Structures are given as C-alpha cells and as structure tokens.
Amino acid sequence: MNKKNIKSLSLEQLEALALSLGEPRFRGRQLFQWLYAKGATSFDAMSNLPASFRNALEAHFDLQALECIQTQVSAIDGTIKCLYRLHSGKAIETVLIPGFDEDGDAARLTVCVSSQVGCAMGCTFCATGQMGFMQNLHAGEIYDQVWQMNQLANEEYGRKITNVVFMGMGEPLQNYEQVLQAIGLLTSPEGLGLASRRITLSTVGLAGRIMRLADDGVKFNLAISLHAPTSEKRSEIMPVNRSLKTDLKALKEAVQYFYQRTKNRITYEYCIFDHFNDNEEDAKALVKIVRWAPSKVNLIMFNPVKGVHFEASHEQRLNAFIRVLVANKVTVTVRRSRGQDIDAACGQLAINAGKTEKTVAQ
Ligand code: SF4
User: Fold this and answer.
1) Atom 7 (ligand 1): residue with closest C-alpha?
2) How far apart are CA 139 and CA 361, in angstroms?
3) Looking at ligand 1, which residue's alpha carbon is closest to its atom 4?
4) Which of 112, 114, 123 to mutate to test the pocket of ligand 1 (most atoms within 8 A of CB)?
5) Same domain, 166 and 307
6) What are the tens digits of pLDDT across the range 232-280?
7) β-strands 332-335, 67-73: how paired?
8) Do 313 and 288 share a structural domain?
9) pTM (predicted TM-score)
10) Domain endpoint, select from 41, 62, 83
11) Are residues 47 and 82 in the same domain?
C-alpha cells in the first residue's frame, strides 16, 4: 500500500485525524509539535502519544525525512548545496548561504529552498527551466529543507538560520497552497518560529497570484524576477511575459495592488547580462518600473549555465548601469555569485544528478 506522507497534513487536518482515530483533538497538536518543533523522524520517538495512536499512524502514514544524497561545499565562500531525494525518488536542491561579518562570524545564514521539481516557466537562462516541470513539493517537504539546513547551520556555525528565500527550483506561486502552508509552518512558534520579514518569496511575476497574495494579507517579502526592463527583451528570455495575463502591463497592476494592500516594499531581481540588458537605456527603463511602487533592485551577477550563451555584465558596464539607478534615487544592491566553484546556478546539481542516474540505469 502506498502510504501518505504525514507531513502533507496541516495542523487542522492532524487534529481531525486524531479525532477520526478515536483520540482527543489535542493529540493532533502534540503530533504537530513532534513533526515540526522537534523534528521527529519516527512515530516511535513520539513518547507522549499513546502506543495505539502511534501504531495507527504507522499503519497509514509515512514519516520520512528528506534524504541528502549529495553535498557540495564552496571553498571560496562556504556556500553549502545539498541534493535531497524526495519520497517520489526525484531530487531537489537546497542551499545554505553564509554571510560573514567583519569578525568572520556567520551573521546571516540564508536557506534557499525549492518549491517544485523542475519548472514550467522555461526562462532561457535558467538550468531548472531546462528540466521542464516534474512535480510540486508538499509543505512538509519544503519545511524539511529548512529544518535540515537549520541542523547543518547549528553544526557548522553554532547558530540558527536567519533567512529563507524561495529562489531555488520552481515557481513558488504555481504551488501556491503548499508554499503558503510551508511558510505558515516556518513562522509558527511550534515550527521554526521565523519572523515573516525573514522570508522572501521570489516569483517570475504571475500577476493573478500576486494579487491573491495581497488579498491573503501575506507579511513576507515579495521579490519579482524581472531580468529585463522592456516587454521585448523580457519576452525573449522569459516566456511568461508573452501572455497578456502575465506581461509587464499586468505585472504593473499586480505590483501596485500588492503594495496598496500590504504596504510591503517590493524587490526586483535583475540578472545583469553582458550586452543584453545592461546599457543606459535599460537602466532608465528599469527606473520607470521601480517607480510603480516603493521598491528596490537587486542586481545579480549571473552564474554560468551550461548551454546558455549569456555572460555576467563586465565591471565597467555594471558600474555605469548602477550610476543611472543611483542618480535616479533607486536603492540598489549587487549580489555577487555565490559558490562559483560548485554547481551553483539553481538546478545544475539536480540536472547533473539526473544525468548520472540515467547513465547508471542504461
Ligand atoms: S528562473 Fe525561476 S521561474 Fe524561471 S525557469 Fe528558473 S526556476 Fe523557473
């Protein structure tokens, strides 16, 4: 029998499950605490639950932690990338990115999580986009990535992770319910107890879903993967922009609606590509977009991806681009590529693992 993963159930569902198995409702909450606050990896370990309840759970549900099948550590900046095997056998990537202060202490420990296996969005510069869409992750699988990275952070740096970004494999808003459920677990005092402002969801810009986030009154940060400032250029590298429902015009409406409802400043992620989106006109077009609503820009230095012809912008062009933004009072930060000595671009490790598995199977 194919058992259901217990971590795909919400607190309310766990309480309903306890009742259906003849237990009082509070057993559901105890179960929830074992799963998320204590990170139990077996029903047996849940010592304050009656044996009959544990046996019934064992009979109907699986409780499997993600299995780490490969780890890469950057010798340059300490970035750790793990390849996890899901219950389905497919693999996803999660990254722990340390940010060091002047004393060399890891002041910031950011976990970059995946929300899907592969991705349907097909951005031409992205390794994950080359895989196509394979599977949505459920909330427990998203939560587990952070949980396991938190353990790793404690082992390596003696402290808890500080931030979570949904910038790994997949488009989080295409897996809306499970992603929001996972964020609920991450921010719950009975989960990891992270503050909402420590979490950033990055989307390719699905306008309708951004409006839904606004209606749902979310408190976490929203980042838009913009990567090009005009419709023409954006459509060239991001197929999402070719639809009237999700083009720049629709995005403008959604972003303004989101800001009106949440008062959360928006971040635009902008991979700066040499001689594609890094001239003065591009910078001026970007300034116009930034004025849609209070926002800031993250310029990202591109990590090379096999089969992709883009290169990161050269220092001189990058500086000229930044000068235009700063002259127009745009808040801008530059994110240097992390883990350049490992398969750093999102999706590369999973693609390579997929290739290895295929070779072995042949
Ligand atoms: S950049 Fe993000 S949305 Fe685009 S294909 Fe890659 S994972 Fe999907």
Assistant:
1) 170
2) 30
3) 123
4) 123
5) yes
6) 999 999 999 999 999 999 999 999 999 999 999 999 999 999 999 999 9
7) unpaired
8) yes
9) 0.92
10) 62
11) no
